Every structure is written in C-alpha cells, then in structure tokens.
Amino acid sequence: MAEIKSIEQALVAGERVLLRVDFNVPIKDNEVTDDTRIKAALPTIKHLLDRGARVVLLSHLGRPQGIGYEIEYSLRPVAYHLSELLGQEVMFSKSIYGDEAIAYTKALLPGEIMMIENLRFDSREKDNNPNFCMELARLGDIYVNDAFGTAHRDHASTAGLPIFLPSYAGLLLDKELKTLQGMLDEPKRPFVAILGGSKVSDKIKIIDALIDKCDTLIIGGGMCFTFLLAKGYAVGSSLKEEDWVDRCKTMLEKAKKQNVKILLPLDVVVAEQFADDVPTDVVSVKAIPANKMGLDIGPSTARLFAHAISEAGSVFWNGPMGVFEMKPFEAGTKVVAEAVAKCKGDTIIGGGDSVAAVNKFNLAKEMTFISTGGGASMELVQGEALPGIEVLKLMI
User: Fold this and answer.
1) What does 248-288 look like in DSSP terms, one character per residue?
2) Catalytic choice (20, 37, 175, 292)
3) Three-state secondary structure along 240-257?
4) CA 162, chain centre distance (Å)
5) Is 28 marked active-site?
6) Who is most buried in 174, 258, 385, 388, counting CB within 10 A?
7) What residue ranges of the chain are covered by domains with CATH 3.40.50.1260?
C-alpha cells in the first residue's frame, strides 16, 4: 500500500483542522450508550488540541432522510459526551455549512474544539457533491481523516473534501491501516481467521481472500449452514442460502487444494423459533430436526474452535458464532471470545458484531487490536480500494 501523510507531519498550530471522525454511535434517551468509537478518536483529538489547532469535528450519525434536521439523529448528545471525556467544552454548530458555520470556526481559539451537526442531514454528503465539498472546505484550513469506519464510503466528507485542502491521516486511521495490512502481508503463523454472521453472500469475497492468506478458517454463525448444505447435510429450518451452495462447494475445494483447514460446526444449539425463552437442544450437524433451526454452535464445536485458536500466531475475527444477544445462544460466541482473549498470538477484532461481543463479555482489553470499521476492515482484507484512503494517497 502506498504511503499516506500522517497528521504527525502537519503543522497545525493556529489552523482550523477539519477532523473527520466516525461518531456514528448508539444513542438512547439523549445518552451515548457505547462510546468505543469516540474514545478511539481521542488520541488524534488530543494531539491536535495540544499543538494549538482549532479543531472542527465532522461526522454522520445513523441514516437520516437527507432533507434537513431530524432530532433523533442529532450529534448534540455526542458533543456533550465528548466534552465530558475531554474535560473541556465542545462547542456545537447546528449549521453544517454557510456563513454562520464559517463564523463559528473562525471564532475558535487555538486549543478549542467544536462539532458540526450531522453531515447526512444534507443529501449531498452521500452523493459526494462537489459543491457540498467546497462548502465544507470553507470551514477549515487543513483536513484530517480519522474515520476508518467510513473510509470505504465514496462520500463528500471522506472522498471529496480532501481534494480541496492539505490532507492527512489521523492517528487512528494510520494505526488501522498499518495493523490490518501488516497482518495480511506478514501474519505470524499459524494464521487463524474466524468468520461468523448470517449470510455467506455477504462474506463470500472475504472467504475467498482469507483462503489465500490463512492456515485455518473457522466458520460459524448462520453462514455455516449453507456450507453444511454444501457438504450434504440437512439443516432443518436454519438460515440458508441455497443459491450459494455451489459457491460454497467451490470454496471448500479451493481450501483443500491450498492445504487450508476449514473448520465447520460438529454440533449446534437448535430451537423451533428465534426467541429468548424457547426450549433448546444440542444436536449433531448430521441430525438437525426438520422443524428446528441452529442458533449457536454447540459445546463440541466450541472446544474444537477454541483449540485451533489457542495454537494461533495471529487471529482475525469478524462475526459472532450465533445469536449471542440472546442468553440461550451466547455460549458459542463467548467461548470463542475467551479463546481469542487467551491466545498468545496477535489478535485482531475486525469490527462489527465481534466488537459488541468482546465488549459484552468484558474482554476488549485482552485483544491486541480492535478495529473501528466493520465494513471498511472487510473491504481492506478483501483487497478492495477504499475511496477515503485512495484520495489521501493523491495528496502526497
């Protein structure tokens, strides 16, 4: 990967720095309920403030219609939460662009910080509209992207805005790229990849890419049932994608030719329906009842997966082993999370629900690195070009 300029190379004292962060965080009753992404951006924010920058934060939140202000998607609660974390006021602009917003940014003193309202309140953000990019550029003197979680989006604040200002990578973005790329280019062996989640169709590219890179590929979650179909097993009413069975067969054959182990479940936890209070059974994958669905890996599978993880030199994990949000179906994901936490090799959590899982089981501190970008990390592992990264390469 070509080098990109780091924020550490920028002279920021007295400059208005447009800092693109990923503060798309869950909010309930005007309170941030998970501030993992906010805390991840703190080193870059503090770096800028300590060097006398006038910091202007840009982010999106949720999926508003793009036709104006919607209270449930306002970033104001995020600004308040960040104020508490920093121990200083984070000023707030309801205006996204224009004379009022520009005046706010120019009134900032060195070492002060403000946040602009949700960029997606304007549909031109997602359209990467050049006029919107120029409007945003008037708010600052320097651009810094620290939002790895949105680097795969071809949006104004990630892919268009950097063209108009001197642009740099933030500390978090730089760390994400170096960690993930380092794992892919020179992993410590054996390299064990763990994939879960619901659909094979969502992850077929990453399965293909990881077979080329890893020594063992563990497959759990709902996606395992399409692979089990490909091996000739009946899977009852479990989630499956019959149109993808042949592609799964191809993946299994490719792995065999390349001497890559693919570990699939030996047993699963089944129930008649997806609910928190239903009776459950543990059955062999060779004997899943026609009227039941698999909702977690079973204990024998969990032990098999944990053993493979324990021997790893490096681990990459994306996707839970079952419906871990529900108590009856959390055990498999918990065992895998604990095995990754105990692994003495490098352990990377590739964003998404895997992050939620390690947080639920209080294991985040035991991991080597937790990526803030689920979709972005997946596309990077797949070898895809990320628009928010490609544009920074042009700024050298």
Assistant:
1) HHHHHHHHHHTT-EEE--SEEEEESSS-TT---EEEETT--
2) 37
3) CCHHHHHHHHHHHHHHHH
4) 22
5) no
6) 388
7) 7-175+387-393, 189-344
Whole-number Å distance between alpha carbons of 122 and 73: 12
The C-alpha angle 10, 110, 121, rounded to 5 degrees, equals 80
Q: Which two tokens stand for residue 34?
A: 């998970």
**For domain 189-344, which architecture applies?**
3-Layer(aba) Sandwich (3.40)
Annotated active-site residue 236? The verdict is no
Is 352 noted as a catalytic residue in this protein?
A: yes
Distances (CA, A) of 395 to 32, 127, 143, 261, 323: 35, 22, 11, 42, 43
Sign of CA dihedral 80, 82, 83, 85: positive
CA nearest to 1, candidates 377, 395, 390: 390
Active-site hit among 5, 138, 199, 360: 199
**DSSP bridge partners of 218:** 194, 263
The single residue of 236, 352, 374, 388 carrying the catalytic annotation is: 352
- Tell me the CA distances in angstroms from 353 to 146, 272, 321, one per residue in order: 21, 24, 10
Written as six digits, the tokens of 352 are 């998404």
Considering the domain 7-175+387-393, what is its CATH architecture? 3-Layer(aba) Sandwich (3.40)
Contact by Cβ (8 Å): 369, 347:
yes
Report the amino acid identity of residue 207.
I
pLDDT in tens, the chain (396 residues): 447 899 999 999 999 999 999 999 999 999 999 898 999 999 999 999 999 999 999 999 999 999 999 999 999 999 999 999 999 999 999 999 999 999 999 999 999 999 999 999 999 999 999 999 999 999 999 999 999 999 999 999 999 999 999 999 999 999 999 988 888 888 999 999 999 988 888 888 999 999 999 999 999 999 999 999 999 999 999 999 999 999 999 999 999 999 999 999 999 999 998 888 899 999 999 999 999 999 999 999 999 999 999 999 999 999 999 999 999 999 999 999 999 999 999 999 987 788 889 999 999 999 999 988 878 888 888 888 899 999 998 765
Q: Please report, as a single letter, which amino acid is at residue 51.
A: R
